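Objective 1b: paired records.
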Amino acid sequence: MKTGYGWDTGLVRKLNEDSIFCSTFDLRTHSGMVSAGLFAVADGMGGHDAGEIASDLAIRIFQAECISGLLTRASVPGLPLMAAAFNKANSAVIEAATEKSLQGMGTTLTTALIVGPDMYLAHIGDSRCYIINSREAIQVTTDHSVVQELVDIGQISPSEALAHPRRNEITRVLGYSADSVPDLIQIKLYAGDNVLLCSDGLCGVLPPGKIEETVLASQSPAQACDDLISQANLVGGPDNISVIIASPASLPSWQALVSAKTGVKID
């Protein structure tokens, strides 16, 4: 599995409140050894340094719980594992926020576990996951934001959402409530699929078409990440920019399917 990642403060913010995690490994499953990867992007929020602490804590707890479950075989790869790790991360941020200097902190969290051709996602907030290939680019996750709600009811268009004055208002985040639950999504990957996770410092300033064009034109996931960050900064770099791209190998061909569309199952 080829991967790349990038993490940049941008040109306006003084502090980078994003956190990322990118790891690949071999995993033994019932069908034998398969290539696997765990990826996460978190965009923190809160006063002073609290956003940075929230995003870092959420990712550290999430990845530790996931990897522990996989390696000890306490859990099989799947959405229940992702949900349990997500809940642990949420509880950890809520508990840490009881400290006076950290009150009000929270974070987005978009995570992907890839095991062979299977991808499991857990997501909350307005960071995103895309699948990009030569046929199409799919935004797999749905933003939990005010502007997304306005798009859903037809009040504004997706392009208008990029510049809307309420574009930074998030409706669901990790760390604010024990009742905050992630969207859980299971997807089959096929040959040529590139999985991209990013914070809104990227997808909030570059349109999906530009992101797709850059990924497909780059020589490697690492080069694509560098190019995307450069482009976000060229248009002002108003926010922290985080991006991860994973390109799994040895995937089944989509041409063998009745439909060429990537299938998405949302619980």
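Objective 1b, second protein:
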Amino acid sequence: MRWQDFRRSDNIEEGSAPGGGGYGFGMPVRLSGGVIVIAVIVGLLFGVNPLDMLSALMGGGGPVVQQAPAPTPSQGGQRAGVADPRRDFVSAVLGSTEDVWSKIFQEMGSRYDPPTLHLFKGAVRSACGMASEASGPFYCPGDRRVYLDTDFFDELDRRFKAPGDFAQGYVIAHEVGHHVQNLLGIMSKYDAQARTLDQRGRNTLSVRLELQADCFAGVWGHNVQAMQKLDPGDVEEGLRAASAVGDDNIQRSMQGRVVPDSFTHGSAEQRVRWFRTGFDSGDVRACNTFGARGP
């Protein structure tokens, strides 16, 4: 992927917070059922034990951040004096999602309000609570931030056997897809419906939520292809990553067996199919996973 040509986003901040509950009034954070489910299933996306994710979410307070100065632009969309290539990559991919979704929202007669992407090491406080690097990338609807420890890209390569810059771009685009759901009111509807369901019903509903985020990531990929910024093999990288983080593959590797009723993100086949749906069509309307008879 020719990400070096992308416009860099300035909606990036960096910082970490020490582990533990931190200081304050000592009051536990009350998380809505939807926020808990969303945060947990995003953790499960990358093979994190849901109990670890819930434990991380019991911290409190807002994000402790250190605003990073924006690098100076240079020709070709690149930045002069870039000290951190991964930060530059994340900024470029985020900038491409902003351009893609701004165009799509404008076509829908609306305005796209981009998320902030928070880079952290170790642990971080979000509006959804405390999270460690074990949480994996996640989106918090409470503060409209995507949280990412770029060391996860190494795990994507080694553990999930899904290397490549387009695979990494898919991870970011998936989390931005959750932000799009938030802006469109899909998350609030999901939250309200999830409250009325038992665990099995919530799992089924969360699968549809996650597959739609995959489809939205595919819509982003479609537009990147239309800009002629993909290289041979990039699409295969994205499909390989989508397959690798399927619930069946994760369960098989973690517990040696597959329990379909406990799926929260979808099988490898489903994730690949919905990413491909968004990629092939480039149409948000094709991503109606909630209206599909079977996701």
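Residues 114 and 285 are 20 Å apart (CA to CA). The chain has one domain: 3-287.
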